[in-house]
Specification:
- The structure is a single chain.
- With 132 residues, the protein is mainly α.
- The chain contains four helices and no strands.
- The protein is elongated and about 110 Å long.
Length: 132
């Protein structure tokens, strides 16, 4: 199937010059040269402007939050407690290393979840979705 517009010439006749070739009429363009120049100058002005940042629209980096320091203190506390608790009177290690690492894993999941929720609720992401 051809995507070309069918010719208005009767079959069997060839077009001998471009003047008699069938053409489609284009709609009238109502754009003046002044409007084109204004648009081009506006585009150039925008390209020349330095990129603008909107400070405070994204969540803070992790190292600037108190969440990170609380998380690190909690991990240190779990490791320290695992080491210091030691054995009970029967000789059984009450707070073994595998339990300590399990609690550290839970702390890590909680920390990552809190960072994800902080980013989820940031205004920058909501504005980005509204512009789609």
């Amino acid at each position: 199937m051809s995507t070309q517009t069918p010719s208005r010439q009767p079959m069997g006749q060839q077009v001998t010059d471009m003047q008699s070739a069938p053409t489609r009429e284009m709609g009238a363009q109502n754009i003046s040269n002044q409007q084109i120049q204004q648009t081009l100058s506006e585009m150039q002005r925008r390209m020349d402007e330095p990129a603008r940042r909107n400070p405070g629209s994204e969540t803070k980096p992790a190292y600037k939050t108190t969440e990170l320091y609380i998380y690190l203190a909690a991990v240190g506390g779990v490791l320290l407690a695992s080491e210091l608790v030691g054995r009970n009177s029967v000789g059984v290690d009450v707070f073994r290393a595998d339990n300590a690492w399990f609690f550290i894993t839970l702390l890590t999941i909680a920390y990552l979840g809190s960072r994800g929720l902080a980013k989820l609720g940031s205004a920058w992401r909501r504005a980005d979705r509204a512009n789609r």
